[in-house]
Amino acid sequence: MDDDADLVTVSKRRKGIYILPNLFTLAALFGGFYAIVMAIDGRFEHAVLGLFCAMVLDSLDGRVARMTHTQSAFGEQMDSLSDMVSFGAAPALVAYVWALKGLGRWGWIAAFVYCACAALRLARFNVNTGVVDKRYFQGLPSPAAAALVAGLIWVTTDLGIGGSAMAWPMFGVSLFAGLTMVTNVPFYSFKDFHMKRSVPFVVIVLIAMGIAVINIAPPVVLFGLFLLYGSSGYVTYFRRKAKGIPTSVISTSTDEPDECDLHR
């Protein structure tokens, strides 16, 4: 009996970390870190590239974990910490160095509000994972908020406009993106969209046309799409209000009193 107990203990000690999904998470973390370094060096196009790469990689790590059945509590915590760096601290610092620095205290206040809201949004997401309707996000997801900040930098840099001329627009975008993350406004999550599901032929044609349109002017088109998504939650919210439909995306309740106020 003692030998069996020892074997169980050894097996528990040998339990390691799933490497594949965490490699994607680490790569996304590197994208955020790379963006910060590039912003400090004044290479903002490279900083934006790092943020967008982090977004793509962040969208893959969870899917890879589910496909390979390698989900773990460690992976969830690692993903949350990576998101805080890549979509919280990194966009705030890049925006500050690019434009907000010229506004003095107002600049760093806007950057801090964005960063703090990203932390609050991620913490609320971790708490509410089991009770939120999977079809929607509660508040703007942090990668989409980072896309708004990075998209503004990308499109203006592509047009040859310097950051000093965009200080107040970046101030507004940073506050909008940050505060929208901590609202209860529902944003469609696309989690009920399955790649294996058959679709009409016209859908493939529309996708091909969409890719062609994006290639005409990628910074402008993509930033426009980010703005549309950032506004879509408010459209859904007020539409539900007008129809008398509950606007909350909380599908069930929680028994823990400390978390009740997060659902309102």
Describe what you observe in this structure.
The protein is built from nine helices and two strands; from the N terminus they run H-H-H-H-H-E-H-H-E-H-H. With 264 residues, the chain is mostly helical. The chain has a single domain (19-263), classed as CDP-alcohol phosphotransferase transmembrane (TM) domain (Four Helix Bundle (Hemerythrin (Met), subunit A)), CATH 1.20.120.1760. Helix 6 (142-158) runs antiparallel to helix 7, helix 6 crosses helix 9 and helix 8 packs across helix 9. The longest helix has 26 residues, at 73-98.
CATH homology group: CDP-alcohol phosphotransferase transmembrane (TM) domain
Unreliable spans are: 5-14, 252-264
Q: Indicate the CATH architecture.
A: Up-down Bundle
Helical stretch tally: 9
For the CA atoms, what is the radius of gyration? 21 Å
Average of the residue pLDDT scores: 83
How would you sum up this structure in a few lines?
With about 260 residues, the protein is an all-alpha fold.
